[in-house]
Amino acid sequence: MSGESKNMPPSWHTTDVSWYRKDLPEINESARKILEQYSGISPDGITSHLHEVRTQAWNIFPYPSIGNWHFLHLGILQQPRYPEILERLQQGQKLLDVGCGFAQDLRQLVFDGAPAENVYGIEIEKPFVDLGYDLFLDRAKIPSANFLAADIFKSDSAAKNLFGSIDIIYASQFFHLWGWNNQVEAGKAVTKLLNPARRSLIVGYQIGAIVPKEHQHSPTKEGKMYLHDRTSLQKLWGEVGEATGTKWMVEAWLDEAEIFSSYVKLDKDVRRISFAIERME
């Protein structure tokens, strides 16, 4: 999640948009386990709890992932390298969720045995960090110092405290918030966070396309997003590498795009693209 709610007109907070779903969809098994077994919420209290937190979040910034309940989707579990990520954290490496929102994927890692002190989150809107604690009722489990309210594009933001210390970046619906040029800038900013002494890894997913394209009139601050296939994503990270003196190998795959259908006007070429981007040197 990324944006500045103070710059948005009141009309942005209307619920009369295609990406706001009033009813709560059926909660997937993984999310229900987190809410019941990790957060300790009773089964009959989950619905009211989710509606309360969702309303507060929508009033801060009306992200599509809030309106369509997508924050209940634990995308990190669909990463083929999830077992490796969990093992690396258990061995002492650090993971950062950029644009973490409620940081639901970090909760999944901790629930599965990752040390809480090794997971970090960055979110530009600080209230979302607090709402993440309200949603998962876990202030005593994950140190508050591990969540930063920061803009990674600004070199003097709190993100600088993590420069060179992160081994794994998780980027869920993050890079697609911009067009090509700003995606390159985001890649350069992320590279600063990574430990140069290790074979760093960036994993996540976003909106992609069979035929790469710049999608206009998107519900993002920039108003556009560049949709990648594997080849264009490799090219983009080639540019990032040239600018930062690094080399990256991109693994990426396209699959269904249903999770995005409520807030992007999809055509037949649009897909979800998942990726694992590994530093080669």
UniProtKB/TrEMBL annotation:
<protein>
    <recommendedName>
        <fullName>Methyltransferase type 11 domain-containing protein</fullName>
    </recommendedName>
</protein>
<comment type="similarity">
    <text>Belongs to the class I-like SAM-binding methyltransferase superfamily.</text>
</comment>
<dbReference type="Pfam" id="PF08241">
    <property type="entry name" value="Methyltransf_11"/>
</dbReference>
<comment type="pathway">
    <text>Secondary metabolite biosynthesis.</text>
</comment>
<keyword id="KW-0808">Transferase</keyword>
<dbReference type="InterPro" id="IPR029063">
    <property type="entry name" value="SAM-dependent_MTases_sf"/>
</dbReference>
<feature type="domain" description="Methyltransferase type 11">
    <location>
        <begin position="96"/>
        <end position="196"/>
    </location>
</feature>
<dbReference type="InterPro" id="IPR013216">
    <property type="entry name" value="Methyltransf_11"/>
</dbReference>
<dbReference type="GO" id="GO:0008757">
    <property type="term" value="F:S-adenosylmethionine-dependent methyltransferase activity"/>
</dbReference>
<keyword id="KW-0949">S-adenosyl-L-methionine</keyword>
<dbReference type="InterPro" id="IPR051654">
    <property type="entry name" value="Meroterpenoid_MTases"/>
</dbReference>
